[in-house]
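Lab notebook, bench 4. Continuing the backlog of folding jobs that were queued last week. Each job is logged with the same field layout so the records can be merged later without manual cleanup. Today's entry covers Dehydratase, a 299-residue chain. Filled in by technician R.K.

JOB TYPE: sequence-to-structure
TARGET: Dehydratase
LENGTH: 299
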Amino acid sequence: MRILFTGGSGKAGRHVVPYLRDLGHTIVNADLHPLGERDVDDLKVDLTDSGQVWGALTQHGSIPELDDPEASDRFDAVVHFAAVPRILITSDGETYRTNVMATYNVIEAAVKLGIRKVIFASSETTYGICFAKGEKRPDYIPVDEEHPVVPHDSYAMSKVANEVTARSFQARSGVDIYGLRINNVIEPHEYKSDFPTYLQHPEMRRRNIFAYIDARDLGHMVECCLNTDGLGFEVFNVANRDTSVGVTSQEIAETFYPDVPKTREMDEFETFYSIEKAQRLLGFDPKHSWRDALGMERP
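JOB STATUS: finished
OUTPUT FIELD FOLLOWS
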């Protein structure tokens, strides 16, 4: 496919873009900062400007494309990861404005140009736990996509608004628009630098519902979405199979969620951020674990 990928220079994108490139896709990275990755074209775009978004989706991405008589300026899919990535980077209002307007502009242009597949980054924060003030526990465990989304901050608000925007555009266009409620993205080098501390202090992971997603497995998730047609509008939790701490899921439940209803029995180290829907509908099959990087046996 020829794919416009927004935010490919960010923490998640810089792993997902080369993953997709290595699968044979042609990628144009629309970002304010270049990725500088081999065989990936960089295009500086302010996504909050609808004209720039429309232009990016209707032009060639590089000089080599101009020299190729068979090259098309038509994109087959849009993957939208660009965003202010959390609260406390800029003002709350600017976080909300940037994320909501960028997503509206990207989806509107893609749909009106007849692009049939849009994948966008939503967030674990939609469930209201990550950036809540004080302690907020899930309504039940494990947390699946039916759990209420009650955002407690401007970043989460923007992601919920983006899901509503996506649902609306899908309803009137019929294209496939998939939202990824991405958990805490972990780059491979962070396992050795950060996870030993998490083993000693599992409470540090409560805001992420004790879950994580390896950046490489996030690339696999996007691949699954690109390969799956006909679902219309859907949102998917995205995480790895296991929790991000060394204690069992039963011990986590007893220590941190003693009064939270459990909808089913869980495996010994199973994530509390359910990925069953993505496994069932997309064939999502994450491969990586922090245990591999730390030389620990997998359960």
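OBSERVATION: The chain has one domain: 2-187+213-241+275-287.
SIGNED: R.K.
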